[in-house]
Amino acid sequence: MMHSFIALLKPIISEFRSRATISWSKRRLRIVFEKISGYDFSSTISQKKLGFLPNEINLCSPSDERILREIFKNINIKNSDRILDIGCGKGFALNYFLTLPFAKVSGLEISELLASICKHNLNRKWGQKAEVILSDATQYDGYSKFNYFYLYNPFPSREILEKVIEKIVSQSTKEIFVIYNNALNTEVLLEKGFIIKKKILDPTSTGKDILIFSKY
């Protein structure tokens, strides 16, 4: 029975590895292209090199553009909407958000180095159209300026996410939306009174939970 089960899994694992290899190869090519163009949206820097521990921040990696496209196919953005990318890293998602009709696009980043790279990338490509804020998300007091929040699983613990969501809720006076990519702590938002508006099918076939939450 066990041998049959393993035999059944082998082609699935092989397919997953193949997709992962192709995805990584595309990303490596994108990193090279970005460097030639004077940007750096896609390469990663370890937590240690940024001066943080793994239990303080997650490794910052870029969102998959296929996922971003799929998310925003399911959202009707108005020209009064304002989005904040919490843990924006080098600005890959912000770069995509700037192609959409948001009234305001901002990123929040705790690392001074990442925030500096992000500013360089966006200013070089878009001028002063996006704001990059250097701050600890658990201490930030400007959440009331936004009604959309994007999180690509930036926090290594449930406790940090809880503090940030509490801050967002306490400062908001209107309906707010949280786009949670790779949602590993869904229960935190549900416990704070959010409802799931939409579950997005992962177009990369990596099994990520991608959820859009809302709360009045």
Can you give a write-up of this model?
The protein is an alpha/beta fold and 216 residues long. It folds into two domains: 1-37; 65-215, 3-Layer(aba) Sandwich (Rossmann fold), CATH 3.40.50.150. It has seven helices and seven strands. A seven-stranded mixed beta sheet has the order 3-2-1-4-5-7-6. Mean pLDDT is 90; it is low at 8-22.
User: Which structural class do you get from the secondary structure elements?
Assistant: alpha/beta
Overall mean pLDDT stands at 90
| Number of helices in the DSSP assignment | 7
The proportion of strand residues reads 15-25%
Any idea what the shape is?
globular
Characterize the biggest β-sheet: 7 strands, mixed
Query: Radius of gyration in whole Å, from Cα?
Result: 18 Å
Spatial separation of the terminal alpha carbons: 51 Å
The CATH top-level class label of the largest domain? Alpha Beta
Structural domain tally: 2
Strand neighbour order, sheet with most strands: 3-2-1-4-5-7-6
* Estimated helix fraction: 40-55%
Q: What name does CATH use for the topology of the largest domain? A: Rossmann fold
Poorly predicted runs of 5 or more residues: 8-22
H/E topology pattern? HHHEHEHEEHEHEE
Number of strands: 7
Supply the CATH superfamily name of the largest domain: Vaccinia Virus protein VP39
CATH architecture of the largest domain: 3-Layer(aba) Sandwich
Give me a quick take on this structure:
The chain has 216 residues and is α/β, with parallel strands linked by helices. It has helices at 2-37, 47-50, 65-73, 92-97, 112-126, 158-171, 186-191; strands at 82-86, 104-109, 130-134, 148-151, 176-181, 195-200, 210-215. The protein contains 7 helices and 7 strands.
